[in-house]
Amino acid sequence: MYNYTMFDKDFVANRAAQFRDQVQRRIDGSLTEDEFRPLRLMNGLYMLLHAYMLRVAIPYGTLSTAQMRALADVADRWDKGYVHFSTRQNIQFHWPHLQDVPDILEALAKVDMHAIQSSGSCIRSITSDHFAGAAEDEAEDPRPTAEFVRQWSTDHPEFAFLPRKFKVAVTGSKHDRAVTKLHDIGLTLVRNATGAAGYEVSVGGGLGRTPMIGKVLREFLPRADLLAYLDAILHVYNRIGRRDNKYKARIKITLHENGIDEIRRQVENNFKLQRARFDGSDQDIFARIEGDFEPPVFKQASIGGYEATRNDDPLFRSFTDTNLHPHKNTDYTIVTVSLKAHGATPGDASSAQMRALADIAQEWSHGELRVSHEQNIILPHVHKSDLPSVHKALRNAGLATANIGLISDLIACPGMDYCDLATARSINVAQGIATRFDELKLEHEIGHLKLKISGCINACGHHHVGHIGILGLEKRGVESYQITLGGDGTETAAIGKIIGPGFSADEILPAIERLIAAYLDLRLDASEIFLTAFRRLGPAPFKAAIYTDEVKNHAA
Amino acid sequence: MTNEATAQIITANDLLSGEVVYLSDAGKWSPEHGDAALLGNVQADARLSEVQKSDPSVVGPYLAGATQRDDAPSPIHFREVFRTKGPSNRFLGKQAHAV
After folding, report:
1. pLDDT for residue A551 is more than 80
2. What structural domains does chain A harbor?
3. Does B54 touch chain A (CB under 8 A)?
4. ipTM, interface predicted TM-score of the complex
5. What is the number of CB-based contacts under 8 A between chain A and chain B?
6. Any chain A CB within 8 A of the CB of B70?
7. Domain locations in chain B?
8. Selection from A429, A427, A419, A497 nearest residue A211 by Cα
């Protein structure tokens, strides 16, 4: 992974020291809250419903074991012994005290971590494929590009006060696991007809109250032109993006109002000016970064014990059936560790679990960990002969839930249990669904399903791109849950459609049960997943199942 | 919000701990909703404006509807009810302090 230079280390340590001074001045009254607020937000410190929340960046979801241990130490020393992995590959501490935050940032700086640009109208932490550098289907590792863009965007003086926040995602696989089409800029590593490396650049994707799928601005951008082209997009957005209405300030609206052709014309014009500023030295930096992402030295060993254990141990077989993904090296595999034990809070991990994950990664995954936007932890490089040991260690830590890609592997934002913007809770709905389908012993029968829950229209729970999405709202003074169907966050991206009126907190689980029962009846066979069945049949039969006559009468 | 709101309280988060606090009749911040001063609309606006200008010990003060119940002000909106307790998925926050 990327090794911080002395420049990086000094920069992060200095920011922590600056923030210590700012916090002190807020506490002694030299700064008002209005003056302090933008300073704390620039360092990832929010005020939520019950307490402060500190959001720490995990650039492109890559964590070392030392970093995971340091995060666990922060949770124990300054928080309440647990953390929340967010839907943007970040980590959130939900109970820090203001006076402790400088110490937390100083502790994190020692392991090359920070909370810079994890809030505010700036370019946020760069996200990527959580299987980067490991997946069999990957054409090229996206992390050098993600790190390159992170360096360019960090503390970029011109883009510190954009019209609104700005999110960039990078993938190197034709299977889009990084939701690139729903980002302000999505970069896909591609090769042109002559085999030269470059990017397909999409722009203007986003969730929130106006969900939009990104449009391709450039089908092939040569690698050497990346920063000049990003500069051009951001220049155009910074100049013509709307600042009069925060709900119309994201680049998706700029694109929608001006049209892709006009945006392309302006970007290409600006790009000519930007490109003249580059002398190629940025490519030397890119090459140095690339060197930091050399794959580990894979071991040569027999994988015979793996199949034998699968035959002997049904729990191990179930785990390896659901939680593995093919690795580039066929003797290796990618293990996804579920943070969705049935009934648990999606994305939460205790400090003990974090240390166990660090130990497991140290011994059996070449010291690497990844965080997925689906709120799980990845062990990217596990030799198949080590899987029985890994499984045993995960079981001991309460981390061996075999449910990846199933209905209980749902994602949920913190909702009104923590968030001050939320209009309803989301965690309780997630817990209810996971627990119920576990009781019914149905989730393996249901198969691949992406269920995503947001506690407000800002859509941190990505409900728009859930095969089944649930949006928590307030209706007449109570929580109300709206169902969307047919969303998809992959390379076949689609925005889910609202199926009808919302349900109360008590009614939403039975409604989801009716929906799933209808799917099981309607599918051609077990290989037709929910999304495929929905695309074949349209919403009508699912709507009929959700809104029975009894429900309709009750709603009326 | 509902029409039930006949009076308002002033609430905020404590500067250091972030804990939810309520402005009492005595002008002190209390962690208990029951200690909050129930204010009429005009009075509430004036008092909030004062707090916003001159009290640096809290963050984000605002008005929330409340009603008198069992001799103490009680929250109306479910968001404010959650704020008197803490998260519903973990026994943390005020509900844990009360034990």
Report:
1. no
2. 6-109 (3.90.480.20), 142-291 (3.30.413.10), 309-396 (3.90.480.20), 424-555 (3.30.413.10)
3. no
4. 0.94
5. 74
6. no
7. 7-97
8. A497
